[in-house]
Amino acid sequence: MEKISRREREHLAHREEILKAAEKVFAAKGYFQTTMNEIAQAAEFGTGTLYKYFKSKEDLYFTLIDEKTEEISQLVRTELFKKRSPIERIRNILILELEFMERNRDFFRIYTSEWGRFEWSIKEDLGKKIHDKMVNYIHLLAKVFEEGMIEGELREVNPLDLAHAFEGIVHSFIFEWLISSESYPLVSKAETIMEIFLKGTQKRGKEDIDRWA
Description:
Arc Repressor Mutant, subunit A; 2 domains; Tetracycline Repressor, domain 2; mainly alpha
């Protein structure tokens, strides 16, 4: 790996400090109520310094979202390639996702509630970046499901459809948790999600089990 200079290290450190400060302010006040001056004060930098790193509040906010998306993607990708059974890896990435959302609840709650107020052009630009990361992740997940079918752990279904269905269930639980006034640990829903996903909800007799096996 190429060694970076002291100036570059300082640049990266300051950038990280600004992002951490921005996350706290955005989580507390929301995007639209936050000013660059407030972020600068929280980061203990001059407002002009912020513009050396980010061209606008919008750029700063979406950089933060993009980096959080990349952070969870990296965690999940690492787990997907581990030498464990497919079902074990699926359960582990589910817990990783839920724990990540718990750590970032305030930020993502603001993001969810304010998303509808952004211009369509902004949504499309950010949405494409997140969508591309999500597509890559879905295809990796589909490979794990395919391994599960080959090893006899899962019934044979289109693995890509299965990956989309799994994430659909997970995201619905996350969304409900974000908007809920009730306080409960999101990770407590992990086993319920696995139970629904792996076994479904229909109570079947022997004939049904034989027909669907």
